[in-house]
């Protein structure tokens, strides 16, 4: 059966309209999903801005406990070190989902999210929200070979590079050195304490083949020797797009943020930070 040009044009017009309508529906659905995710996360975020919690603080109604060193029978110089334990600002979030390993925040940016850890299935939250529901943004994921307790030398956190800017969608802003200068610090809130970091290197890399004999940032989790530490440290400093002026030495701990970029196949954009002065230590979370 021969189809006239007019009929064919109508069919193509209708198909194009259906495609446009489908695209609009998907866009609206995505924005609704993003809004619901943000509303859910807002309920988990403490009312007090984390930027003001650099110094020890307390939560109303919770006691402050001063912890002193345990007495020692050995003849060592007396220690005057002591610290206060305060209520964990993310206690409700830890209680709401046992898979939450920490809460990550970069002050002055939109990166302010829970970090999930499911070593038995590392990708469980890849396309799931904090409550386990389906969500294209997924959650930030702590690599299954990283651990906050006991703390590994390097904590690697993966996150989607979302066009909306959600998760690590704006992490590549660190390619701009001026942006780095205004957002040098990263905070990780664990059950035990607040860990403060300062960015030490920013670079592009990729996931290589297993047989490639190259530096693989995503394979470094623990440095038990000076040689293991130096291999990681020297490589990230050489790869860094600019000199941050921050140095590290054997015994320091790192936080590595990684997201997809597309300069090469399996490309990754990486921000590495070094742990600096400690923050608050927290009281045990009571159920």
Automatic annotation (TrEMBL):
One Pfam family hit: Sortase
Signal peptide extent: none
Bilayer-crossing regions: none
Region (Disordered): 42-82
GO terms assigned for molecular function: hydrolase activity
Active site (UniProt): 160, 260
Compositionally skewed regions (Polar residues) per UniProt: 46-57
Comp. bias intervals (Low complexity): 62-80
Gene3D superfamilies (UniProt xref): Sortase (2.40.260.10)
InterPro entries listed in its UniProt record: Sortase, Sortase_dom-sf, SrtB
Source taxon at top rank: Bacteria
Keywords for this protein: Hydrolase
Full protein name: Class B sortase
């Amino acid at each position: 059966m021969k189809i006239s040009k007019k009929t064919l044009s109508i069919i193509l017009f209708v198909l194009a309209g259906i495609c446009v309508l489908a695209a609009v529906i998907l866009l609206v659905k995505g924005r609704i999903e993003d809004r619901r995710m943000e509303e859910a996360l807002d309920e988990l975020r403490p009312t007090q801005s984390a930027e003001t919690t650099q110094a020890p603080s307390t939560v109303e109604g919770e006691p402050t406990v001063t912890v002193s060193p345990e007495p020692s029978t050995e003849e060592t110089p007396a220690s005057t070190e002591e610290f206060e334990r305060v209520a964990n600002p993310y206690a409700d979030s830890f209680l709401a989902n046992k898979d939450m390993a920490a809460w990550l925040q970069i002050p002055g940016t939109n990166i302010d999210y829970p970090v999930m850890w499911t070593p038995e299935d590392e990708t469980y939250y890849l396309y799931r929200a904090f409550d386990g529901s389906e969500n294209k943004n997924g959650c930030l994921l702590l690599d299954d070979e990283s651990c906050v307790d006991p703390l590994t030398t390097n904590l690697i956190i993966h996150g989607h590079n979302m066009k909306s800017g959600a998760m690590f969608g704006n992490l590549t802003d660190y390619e701009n050195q001026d942006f780095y200068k205004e957002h040098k610090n990263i905070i990780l809130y664990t059950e035990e304490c607040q860990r403060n970091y300062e960015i030490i290197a920013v670079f592009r890399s990729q996931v290589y083949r297993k047989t490639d004999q190259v530096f693989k940032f995503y394979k470094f989790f623990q440095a038990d020797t000076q040689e293991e530490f130096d291999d990681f440290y020297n490589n990230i400093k050489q790869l860094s797009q600019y000199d941050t002026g921050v140095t590290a030495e054997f015994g320091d701990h790192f936080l590595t943020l990684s997201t997809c970029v597309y300069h090469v196949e399996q490309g990754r954009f990486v921000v590495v930070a070094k742990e600096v002065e400690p923050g608050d230590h927290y009281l045990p979370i009571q159920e």
